[in-house]
Amino acid sequence: MASDSGDRNPTLKKCLAVLREARNDSEQFAALLLVTKAVRAGEVDAKTRRQIFDAIGFTFPNRLLTSRQPPAGCPEHTFRALGLTLLACFCTDPELAGHSQILNKIPTFNDILVSPCNPDSTSMIDDVYQCLSAVMATARGPRELVTKGTVSALCQAYVNCSYGSDRALTLLLGLLAVAEVKCWQRDAPHLLAVLSKLSDDFLKAEDMTKFELCEVLPRFIPLSLPLAQDSQGSECLHKLYKGLANILGSKLGQSQRDPALKLAACLVQACGSEWIPAGSAGSKFLALLVNLACVEVRLTLEEPDPLEVEGKKEVVTACYVLIEMGIQECLREEKPLLEEVQKMQLMRIMEEAFGAVIFYLKQVKQEELQDPFIFASVRILGAWMAEETSSLKQEICELLPFLVHYAKKLFKEGSPAVSLPQPDLVSTEGSGVPQDALRFLLPGFCHLTAEDRPRDILISEGAPALLSEYFLYQWEVLTSKPGSLTPLTNTEMSLQTACGIFLNLVVTAPDLIRQDKTFSSLMDMLLKSLPLLLPQKDHLVLAANIATLGLMMARILASSAALQGTQSAKEFFGAAVCFLSQAHTAQADPGRDGLAAAVSPAYASAWADISELWFLGMQALAGCVPLFPWLPQAVLQARWLEGLSELLARVAPASVDFELIAAFQGVLVELARASKPCRDVILSHHGREWANLYGMAALEQCLSEQ
Questions:
Q1: What secondary structure letter does DSSP report for 599?
Q2: InterPro entries from the entry (predicted)?
Q3: Which residues contact 264 (CB under 8 A, 6 or more apart)?
Q4: 3-state helix, strand, coil in the chain (%, to 5)
Q5: pLDDT at 558
């Protein structure tokens, strides 16, 4: 059996004995010189290293680091170099590398990295990098390095091309991998300087370095910092664009093309298409980028070899990011980067790529459902279905059972899958569900529920019950903060889109609403949610969706117990009346004297999104009046009739368009027919006169009847 290095090296063994028994610094120093020589020569194993530590601990290296008087005839940093060598030796023991005595030396290590380097001090820098690498590998290490300023020291070492700068870059890559946001928050200027150097090198390189930098650069493109809004950042982006244009415009092998596509995808995730300049060159580059991504997807997925797909998942996921940008750019009307001809060509090419994605998803086995690549494939298909409703309809209908099953599995179980390295183009903050596939499928489902065949498939696969559960879950996420509704964009968008799906089902499949208990539960939830939602600021679009959906469902479920004058029903209808009644006001007409009817200021910014819902809500409320005998009383309590009478009496009739007059008349006629008190209020506020003035013939006739 081999003996330890202390036994193999009697001199080292003797030095250790001297270290333990030394009576003064000179004896310790002489022994240490031999010990450090052995350490540097790599003659120390784990057992001997521990013996050295037991002999001197941290006290002696600490003294060496702070001593400013070198031995006669020695360089001034002699003691410091000895201390660093010992610490580097100790750091090879993971337990010692995370010790507070090492962690509190981090500022010293940083100072050495940024100090001018003499030819005879390179061993000190080697030792510092060894210490920092060891600290990095400990549990507390990355956090300590970031908070103690190591990021800026490493950046300076790299930018200045100091000795060991390649190791500085390696450490920076490691820190950014585990703490990107914190690094950029604390040291953005220094990291930008590194990005500037890397992008400069990337543009100038004419050899394989260019492709190696494609692998490094993504780590230095922050998702948390708007690079395009910073002058230095913009300059970096332009160099990266030019470098990528050079690469992708050349004939490339796969090993060269893949890193370039991944770098481009990273830039898209961080900056959208802002890094691509407007004009002919930029539009050609964008079209080329999306084209290459589509080709890669088709080559990989049309005839999938399981082993080949496994090795290509990361680059295909990057291609999905580029294709999603392609979809967005083809739909962009304001300052488009692409010309109409390019858009049409790209839509055809993307359609072929999505045919390959659908083909691939049809082959997926049950045991593969947790694979993040499946999620990425479903997500990009959802982006296509959300925008392109006429394409690949037959294929998508055939895939719907799988999509519903997949979304249900992920929602019910929660997915432990760890995402491939591709942050969302759309932030997932606030979603709450691990791998929330439904969020990306909802817009497509909303289009599909308006059509007979896909709607029937979705219903037969149990989508309504799943969507109802999902709606309830997302509502709980939205209202999880006590006392207020948190402004979580994704959650709110999911709720709004789900409302759109339910509205489609209400209009096209009323029997389903009547017979499926799912919708009774959903109705109960809507009754409770609107009164809570309506008083909150910044949630008007969601309130409009919930109010209109609730009113339209109430017409179908009028006989349900929950709507028979219960407290929750009265509160819901009170809130719905409040939403509908406050949408319009009288305001000065700039074109003429007097007042004009206008959308209320509180509704103005959202009116483009909610006007259709408001008119549907008015129609639904009119339909509810004869079904609920207690409803006219709720309208009277809200004093809507008085307010509406005053509005119509004050404004110029020409300022009220026909659609608005019809909406008001629909509700007023039903109230006047169903309730004598409502009829009396309208009459007492000159109802006959303004009914005649606005051409509300049905209301005029109703008010004239005894």
A1: E
A2: Neurochondrin
A3: 244, 248, 289, 318, 322
A4: 75, 0, 25
A5: 93
Q: What is the pLDDT of residue 420?
A: 42
Cβ pair 690, 661 in contact under 8 A? no
Q: What is the pLDDT of residue 352?
A: 95
Kindly report the backbone phi and psi dihedral angles of residue 585, in degrees, each rounded to the nearest multiple of 5, phi listed first. Answer: -150, 170
- Residue partners of 324: CB distance under 8 A and separation at least 6: 380, 383, 425
**Identity of residue 640:** W
Neighbours of 26 (CB within 10 A): 10
Does residue 11 carry a pLDDT above 60?
no
Q: Give Cα separations from 472 to 159, 465, 495 (angstroms).
A: 52, 11, 9
Tokens of 1: 């059996």
Q: For residues 671 and 618, is the Cβ–Cβ distance under 8 A?
A: no
Angle, vertex CA 404, rays to CA 401 and CA 408, nearest 5: 140
Q: Which residues contact 652 (CB under 8 A, 6 or more apart)?
A: 589, 592, 594, 595, 596
Query: Which of 320, 305, 302, 428 is CA-nearest to residue 373?
Result: 320
Q: What is the DSSP annotation of 682-704?
A: HHHTTHHHHHHHTT-HHHHHHHH
Give the per-residue pLDDT at 577.
96
Host H or E run for residue 335:
none
Residue 420 class from Cβ within 10 Å (0-12 exposed, 13-18 middle, 19+ buried)?
middle
Quick check: 93 pLDDT over 50? Answer: yes
**Across-strand partners of 598?**
585
Q: What DSSP letter does each residue of 437-504 carry, written as one string?
A: HHHHHHHHHHHHTTSHHHHHHHHHTTHHHHHHHHHHHHHHHHT-STTS----HHHHHHHHHHHHHHHH
Instruction: Inform me whether the pLDDT recorded for 537 exceeds 90.
Output: no
- For 559-606, how does the pLDDT look when each residue is reduced to its tens digit (9 = 90+)? 999 888 899 999 999 999 999 999 999 988 777 778 889 999 999 999
pLDDT tens, 123-176?
Answer: 889 999 999 999 999 999 999 999 999 999 999 999 999 899 999 999 999 999
